[in-house]
Structure formats: C-alpha cells, structure tokens
Design a protein that fits this description.
Its main location: cytoplasm. Its EC number is 2.7.1.24. Pathway: Cofactor biosynthesis; coenzyme A biosynthesis; CoA from (R)-pantothenate: step 5/5. This protein is an alpha/beta fold. It has a single domain, classed as Rossmann fold, CATH 3.40.50. 56% of the residues lie in helices and 14% in strands. The protein contains nine helices and seven strands; from the N terminus they run βαβααββααββαααβα. The strands form two sheets. A five-stranded parallel β-sheet has the order 2-5-1-6-7, with helices on both faces. The longest helix is centred in the C-terminal third of the chain and has 27 residues. The structure holds dephospho coenzyme A (COD) and adenosine-5'-triphosphate.
C-alpha cells in the first residue's frame, strides 16, 4: 500500500486537494477533521477544559475560545498538542490498518503538520499543496473570525511554504483553479500507479 502524505501551510488548499484525491477513489484521512471531531468528545473536552479553563462551551471545545487563549499565550500550543496529537496518531493508525486489510493500493493522509511532527517517516510519498502567498492570505483572511494576528500566529508554528515545497515529491499548485488542480492530481496518481506496476514487475522477475 502506498501512503501519500498531503500537507501544506494554512489556506494552501489541502482539504480541497484531498477532496480531489477522494474523487479519484483514494481513501482520505483528514487530521484537521479528526481534531474537530475529537473536540466534540466528552473525555477530550474535559481534558482540554482542565488544561485551558473556559475553552469548553456546552460540553464541546470552542475553537474560537481556544484560539483566544493561544493568542494570549502561544507557549500553550505545546500543551494542547501534547493532548491532541497522540489521539490523532491513534486514529491514523486505525485508518491505515483498516485500509491495509481492505487491500487498498493507495491511501492519503492529510497531515497539516507533516514536517513539523516528523510525519515524513510515516508516509511513502509527500504531496504539498501550495499557491502564491497573496492568494493564501486572501483566502485565509476571508474566513469568519480570522484575523491577521491569528494567521501570523499559526504561520509562525508552520514550516515555511518554500521549505515544504523543497521537500515534496509532488507539488499541487492550487492557485490555478480547481480544474487544473484536478489534472495535477490525476497526473500524480498515474505516476504512482506506473511506478508501482514497474516495481511489481521487477519484484516478480
Ligand atoms: C488552533 C485551533 C484551535 C484553531 O482552530 P480553527 O478552527 O480556527 O482552525 P483549523 O483547526 O481549521 O486550522 C486552521 C489551520 O491551522 C493549522 N493548525 C492547527 N493547529 C496548528 C498547530 N498546532 N500548529 C500549526 N498549525 C496549526 C491547521 O492545520 C490548519 O492549516 C485548532 O486548529 C487546534 O485546536 N489546533 C491544535 C491541534 C493541532 O495541532 N492540529 C493540527 C493538525 S493535527
Ligand atoms: N485548486 C483550487 N482552485 C481554486 N480554489 C481553491 C483551490 N484549492 C483551494 N481553493 C480555495 O482555497 C480556500 C482554502 O482551501 P482549503 O480549505 O482546501 O485549504 P486548507 O489548506 O485545507 O486550509 P486550512 O489549512 O485552513 O485547513 C478555499 O476557499 C478553497 O475553495
């Protein structure tokens, strides 16, 4: 099974690109989505309320409250990540086991902090979603509740885009529109399938 690791800085188009892989029949595991789901879990919400009082509303983690806390004290990111990341990794392991049992030839892990958390070890191929910085800022700042301060805070915790691209096996340019990105994704999959059928032939020779 080929495990693709898809990453990219905030607003670069990871989720959209993951959706294009999904359209092509590739099973996708989305770490950001897992975090959002975990925040609705009672036990997780309790642990986060203990560490960050006032960040749980109605039994669920309120991401806006949590963001306000992090903006006041960015050192708290480490404390939050220590609670959340092991749970995300556990979900990821379960997903990979399930897909392996189902004999899926290619799967995709959408991991925003792939490089920052040593995730390169867990994947076979790295795809980076990227676009020009002005497009990225425009996209992110148009989101409700997003501020320049919050964007800068998140960017300060992410490996710069140029470094991500330098370490990628493939880059999907998401600044050219959805049809172009779809074509790029199809080409990546064709390349991976051709590679794996070549290596299959070599193994059997
Ligand atoms: C900071 C939080 C509250 C902001 O929530 P919000 O709904 O506004 O944003 P969302 O979760 O959609 O993330 C937006 C972007 O920020 C990135 N981001 C999120 N957490 C982090 C982090 N710890 N370090 C760097 N970038 C991060 C995301 O990957 C994404 O690209 C939330 O992202 C969070 O709880 N993060 C901690 C968990 C984490 O590390 N997630 C990353 C993937 S496992
Ligand atoms: N190929 C594309 N063509 C046109 N618009 C795109 C493309 N990819 C992404 N976008 C747009 O850019 C915005 C951000 O995309 P998306 O949510 O996929 O990014 P992300 O990297 O997952 O963001 P985050 O890091 O915050 O989770 C969305 O409005 C999306 O529609």
């Amino acid at each position: 099974m080929i495990v693709i690791g898809l990453t990219g800085s905030i607003g670069m188009g990871k989720t959209t690109t993951a959706g294009l892989f999904s359209e092509e029949g590739i099973p996708v595991h989305d770490a950001d989505q897992v975090v959002h789901d975990l925040y609705r879990d009672k036990a997780v919400a309790q642990a986060i309320e203990l560490a960050f009082p006032g960040s749980v509303i109605g039994g669920e983690v309120d991401r806006r409250k949590l963001s306000e806390n992090l903006a006041k004290n960015p050192a708290n990111f480490k404390k939050l990540e220590a609670i959340v990341h092991p749970l995300v990794h556990e979900r990821e392991r379960v997903f990979l086991d399930e897909q392996k049992h189902a004999s899926q030839p290619i799967v995709l892990l959408d991991i925003p902090l792939l490089f920052e958390t040593g995730g390169q070890q867990r994947v076979d191929v790295i795809v980076v979603a990227s676009c020009a910085e002005d497009i990225q800022r425009q996209r992110v700042l148009s989101r409700p509740g997003m501020t320049q301060e919050k964007l800068d805070l998140i960017l300060s915790r992410q490996l710069p885009d140029a470094e991500k691209r330098a370490h990628a096996d493939f880059v999907v340019d998401t600044g050219l529109g959805i049809d172009d990105a779809r074509r790029q994704v199809k080409t990546i999959l064709e390349t991976l399938r051709a590679r794996s059928s070549r290596s299959g032939k070599t193994d059997n020779a």
